[in-house]
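Troubleshooting log. The previous structure file for this entry was overwritten by mistake, so regenerating from the original sequence record. Sequence copied from the archived sheet and checked twice against the printout by T.R.
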Amino acid sequence: MSDKLYIPPVLQIICENTSKWGNPLGLASKDCAVWASGLQIPNKGKTILYTGCEYQMTSRIQSLVEVLKRVKFEDTAFAVFKGLQSVAGRFGVDSMKIFTRAGGGDSKTYDRILRMSALTLRRLEVDFSYLDGELYSGALLYEYGLFEEFGKQAERVVNQLKAEGVMKIIALTPHSAEIFQQVYPQFIDNFDFEVSPYVCTVAEALKKAGMELSLPKPLTLTLHDPCRLARALKVTEEPREVLQAIRNLDLREVASNKGSTICCGAPCKTIYPELSELVASKRVEELLATGAEAAVTLCPFCYSNLTGKALTVVDFIEIVYQALGAEDVGA
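Regenerated output below.
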């Protein structure tokens, strides 16, 4: 028996990609930043909109999951894949990049949401920039208990933020907001960046602006609270304050909400994809029981894992952008 910690092959790939490319799926910087094309967002400033490449990766995860369903925990099968990666790398081809790019058919959907997030901040006169070449926070490494690898990634991220003169982070996703607020201070000495979840920034800016929000057509919505936002960060009232301020929107609460929200199943998707689908189906049943036309959430992973299961899912960013009466986001 070996005393060495066993790391499932898929997590080994995630670790290696994060170390080499800065994110778990090995996406190039240009792939993560394509959404910002033409928006003329400053790439340097004291306040940044941090995407962490999470929306960008979400559309590509399903292709990896389909392979996982076939190989399970078979080290041999993944060893073959990793061997192909190594051989391909010597010839200047990265097989993981090809693999994830093939599953990126929905990338335009997620890029539109990202564009809406930035344009909403601009409409609300929030001053921000976006770091071209931003690094993934490492949240997945931490959540899977890979603390040594997470610590190294956290140092890389902080070094980048300091080098760019960043002082405040508007964290677009609940996972990155939690990691920055609650976990980085445990690994990084003197982590003194101000961190604001995107929904909190929007809620505060809307109050300051005093804008009226209205949807063009009546819509009944139920809210799925992401676990990291509601349970870890205790952010439950801000999304409701914003949604309830929108005319033509009827918000119906699901039975398990706020701090008692039920997980969408996404966190275990790369390890136990079948279990992830089971958890998602249970949550969908609850959301459908409200009788609402659609469910709104604030996390790309929840958005992805609940979509396509007899439930219409929309992102909070989409609803706010539409309620502001904004024009089409463009290409």
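The domain at 211-323 is CATH 3.40.50.1860 (Rossmann fold). Archived copy saved in two places this time.
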